[in-house]
């Protein structure tokens, strides 16, 4: 994005989008961490190989979602932050 | 957004953002569905109340993430779709 072409409307919208993305990723990570904690608790009580495999798969999905969240947020890394009026 | 103030740059950027959001939500839902399937498999083998509670909590987190994804996508529902050049 060329700053010379950025209107104040665009700036305000980008600030809003970055804020939405940041909150979304934060909320996702809360859920991922809670689910991981429960999967970890379950793992302490499980010995059956099939059940351990299902638990490992759940934790893998949580890792994948964490990566998805990071990768998604990176698309907006260059967007201006609310607290930075010079962006 | 007043269409009269929208430049082609803004339009292209919004189309791109909507596409990113759509892919992100789709990928998240894939992970959520996989984790739910594994949690369901585990639920068939578990009888211990503490373990059932942990499983229920994992499934609740998956439901919460699904809601987060829907709610996040709604912020961009009014953005133009790639296939609709008149937006």
Automatic annotation (TrEMBL), chains A, B:
Q: Which domain of life is it from?
A: Bacteria
Name of the protein: Histidine kinase
């Amino acid at each position: 994005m060329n700053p010379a072409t950025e209107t104040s409307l665009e700036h305000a919208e980008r600030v809003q989008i970055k804020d939405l993305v940041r909150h979304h990723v934060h909320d996702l990570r809360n859920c991922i961490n809670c689910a991981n904690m429960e999967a970890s608790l379950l793992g302490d009580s499980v010995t059956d190989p099939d059940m351990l495999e299902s638990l490992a798969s759940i934790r893998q999905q949580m890792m994948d979602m964490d990566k998805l969240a990071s990768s998604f947020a990176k698309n907006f890394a260059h967007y201006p932050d609310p607290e930075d009026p010079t962006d």
